[in-house]
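Q: How would the structure tokens look for this protein?
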Amino acid sequence: MAVSLRPRFEATYVDTSVWCAYGFNQAESAPAMEWLQTADLTRLGTAWWAETEFASALGIQLRKKALNAAQARRAQERFADLMAAVNRLNLIEADFIEAAQWAAQPARGLRGGDALHLAVAQRHGCKAVATLDATMQANARRLGFRTISFS
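A: Here is the predicted structure in token form.
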């Protein structure tokens, strides 16, 4: 009898764009914020990689002066609260290899980080992907994921 080492999460994978929308509390992010406020957080997952991406986005917002220090602190606190409530999905070498292959395909239009999110979601058996990025949504559907619409 073969034993599958592939973990099965079977829930919704949330991309960093959604975490940023919630953390930064931007007016154009209202649909994503509303969705997160009503979601069953125990059925959501995100890669540990989101921690780095969120920090990078926060730094960009500070450098552009789109957020001040107090707003950035509140955004970090909101993000930390969410991360404590959702499933954190590990990354392994195979995720990076898969993501590199997808990112190298011009027709996909994927950036490396987005490809990595999708590779993690696929390996963990997620059924849906929540993202504000249209290119990532299209690639998620191509891979067989349902996508969460925020329009």
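Residues 1-6 have pLDDT under 50 and may be disordered.

Residues 12-148 form a domain with the Rossmann fold fold (CATH 3.40.50.1010).

Upvote if useful.
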